[in-house]
Design a protein that fits this description.
This protein is mainly beta. It is built from 2 helices and 21 strands.
Length: 320
């Protein structure tokens, strides 16, 4: 009987969209939901009976989600697929800085973002290989309720094949943790937050064309890219609420500093938002308990910074 604890998820960087590659890195994941759906096309013609008509195979779509703890090396692959390739510099021997700025150009004329091959081994005799996969949505969260930084990726892929499973090898670093975070809003340290969630939605879709196959022939944008931010505020005063009422847009930064790498550097992830705008800021009394606010916001594009959200990762990975 297949056992989830024996499963693994591997990832490999594709050079050409839809050309599979073997897994080179492996993600410590909590759950996955990759599926292949096969459209059922039914004939509507009359056939002399009251029964439904014949069915034919339509298009095949492949998509799913992946939930994981955020480790400082492997997460760069997911950031690359969601944001685009980073600019990488070496800070010192064995320590690298990767700056992920959301790209404006497509990876190719049939794929908006850098593609990967995902291998999902579910403890069966063969592994599931999801080819031509891109991260459409990528979300991170942490807080007093979830003390290990969590990630969630919504993935769209071109096709599924079955392969012999590979042997996983996982990174040995520690994940980012809640107490490692420092948050600034408008240049001022803020210690009123209980939970925090942020991410990117690329608004991609897989589209089929008349190319002689039943698979999608391209994964491209179907709308504007968006960057959402959510907070739980344990409010001491109305300063942030008044910022919502005035609809001010302010620079914000989220930074988690992990364990030491060596020398003067630590594993680190920094999220820079040049213009944070609160979109909902309800303050209500739900009972006798402490009043908190579940706040929604969005990161807006800033012409001076040329981005809406930039993520900088410091780790021991030399390239993505």
């Amino acid at each position: 009987m297949p056992f989830g604890a024996l499963a693994h998820v591997g990832i490999g960087k594709e050079t050409t969209w839809g050309t599979p590659v073997a897994a080179s890195d492996y993600i410590k994941f909590a759950s996955e939901g990759f599926t292949e759906e096969i459209e059922q096309v039914m004939s509507e013609t009359m056939n002399g009976t009251v029964d439904e008509g014949a069915s034919y195979e339509g298009g095949r779509t492949v998509a799913g989600d992946l939930s994981f703890d955020v480790y400082p090396n492997i997460v760069g692959h997911l950031l690359r697929s969601a944001f685009g390739a980073p600019v990488t510099t070496m800070l010192e021997a064995g320590v690298y800085q990767h700056v992920f700025t959301p790209v404006q150009a497509n990876f190719s004329n049939v794929c908006a973002l850098p593609p990967y091959t995902f291998e999902v081994h579910r403890d069966f005799e063969q592994a599931f290989q999801y080819i031509g996969a891109v991260v459409n949505e990528l979300t991170f969260s942490f807080g007093t309720d979830s003390k290990i930084m969590q990630g969630s990726a919504a993935v769209i892929a071109k096709k599924l094949e079955m392969i012999a499973k590979t042997t996983p090898s996982f990174e040995t670093t520690n994940p980012f943790l809640w107490h490692q975070a420092a948050i600034t809003i408008d240049g001022v340290d803020n210690d009123d937050l209980q939970t925090l969630e942020f991410g990117i939605n690329n608004n991609l879709e897989g589209r089929a064309t008349l190319d002689g196959t039943k698979e999608v022939s391209r994964i491209l944008r179907n709308g504007k890219r968006a960057f959402t931010v959510s907070f739980t505020f344990d409010l001491k005063d109305l300063a942030e609420y008044n910022r919502f009422r005035s609809q001010s847009e302010v620079a914000s930064k989220i930074e988690l500093t992990g364990s030491a790498i060596g020398g003067s550097n630590n594993f680190k992830i920094t999220i820079d938002i040049p213009k944070l705008r609160y979109t909902a800021f309800p303050i209500n009394v739900g009972g006798a308990e402490t009043i908190t606010a579940q706040v929604e916001g969005t990161a807006k594009y800033d012409a001076a910074s040329a981005n809406a959200m930039k993520i900088t990762l410091i780790n021991t990975k030399s390239s993505y």
